[in-house]
Specification:
Helices cover 85% and strands 0% of the residues. The termini are far apart. It has helices spanning 2-33, 38-61, 68-95, 100-123, 130-149. By secondary structure, it is mostly helical.
């Protein structure tokens, strides 16, 4: 169990880093290169990274066969709280003169810790590794059918 938690945390970290790269690139291009307001840039980068992160963590980190629309709804609820707060503090921090990249990395760090805990204990609670069990059941059925045929 302890090893599984460490492996999940490591996978979540790796997928979060890849999502973070997407978020940083999108936010930086929109904010610094195109001159779009920080909050619009941040929200766009955040939405794209959330979709990426959710998709890969559901499939590979938590291996959940959970109802995808419902799981995404729960993630959306998390972001209903996190997004306004992080947009507010991000806008305030940039307004105080902190560089946009610093503000983004700070927000992403807070997001990483809180979202991992939320996904593990709320979104995928009770369904971790259920996709593995589904795959095993499919495999057993195929083997049974093959044995019956031959």
């Amino acid at each position: 169990m302890k090893n599984q938690n460490l492996i999940q945390a490591f996978k979540f970290l790796m997928f979060s880093i890849s999502a973070g790269v997407i978020q940083i690139i999108v936010t930086t291009i929109m904010d610094d290169c195109l001159g779009i307001d920080y909050w619009v840039s941040y929200l766009t980068g955040l939405v794209l990274s959330v979709i990426w992160n959710f998709t890969f963590n559901r499939k590979f980190t938590f291996k959940s066969a959970n109802n995808v629309p419902f799981a995404m709804f729960l993630v959306a609820l998390y972001y209903c709280a996190f997004t306004p707060l992080s947009t507010w503090w991000g806008n305030a921090m940039e307004g105080a003169g902190l560089p946009g990249i610093f503000v983004t990395v700070f927000s992403m760090s807070i997001n990483f810790v809180t979202e991992f805990l939320y996904q593990k204990f709320v979104v995928f609670r009770g369904t971790v590794n259920s996709a593995v069990n589904c795959e095993e059941e499919k495999f057993k059925k195929i083997i049974k059918l093959l044995k019956e045929e031959f």
